[in-house]
Amino acid sequence: MYPEIFEQVAGVLPQSVLATAHHWRRHSLAGRTYPGALPDSTGQSTITGVLWLNVSSLAISALDRFEGQEYRRVGIDVTTSDGKKFQANIYQWLLPTQILWDDWCTESFEQNHRQNFVQTHGVSQDSKTR
């Protein structure tokens, strides 16, 4: 959901819009600073994030490699703030024993972990091009 990370991983920076995934929850993970998303059977949770538009198959392959075997890309429906519906992909976390049942905090990540995350993955926070 961060442009500089997406661009570094995918090799492109497509247009994007904010969108909401209903019936999904973004969890904190044991020992990790990044989140894991899972379907929410209660129907009460939502994830607000970025919907990247017109992503090429080459970029999707790069994203799949980056996410690795801890995640599986699955199709979902999302809704933008203006009510438009899209079919999208989300990376579903596959290791439920490592889920902490509290929500992952975007603000905490941005304040405490983002800089280290982008350094670890070779991304500078001010990069706009590859």
How does this model look, in words?
The longest helix has 15 residues, at 106-120. This protein is 26% helix and 37% strand. It is built from three helices and seven strands, in the order H-E-E-E-E-H-E-E-E-H. It has a single domain (3-120), classed as Hypothetical upf0131 protein ytfp (Roll). The strands form two sheets. A four-stranded antiparallel sheet has the order 4-1-5-6, with no helix packed on it. A three-stranded antiparallel sheet has the order 3-2-7, with no helix packed on it. The protein is α+β, with helices and mostly antiparallel strands.
Shape: globular
Low-confidence stretches: 123-130
H/E element string? Answer: HEEEEHEEEH
- Estimated helix fraction: 25-40%
Mean pLDDT comes to: 86
Oligomer: single chain
CATH topology: Hypothetical upf0131 protein ytfp
Pfam family, one: GGACT
InterPro entries: AIG2-like, AIG2-like_dom, GGCT-like, GGCT-like_sf
Keywords: Transferase
Protein name: Putative gamma-glutamylcyclotransferase
Brief rundown of the structure:
With 130 residues, the chain is of the alpha+beta class. The protein is 26% helix and 37% strand. The protein has a single domain (3-120), classed as Gamma-glutamyl cyclotransferase-like (Hypothetical upf0131 protein ytfp, Roll), CATH 3.10.490.10.
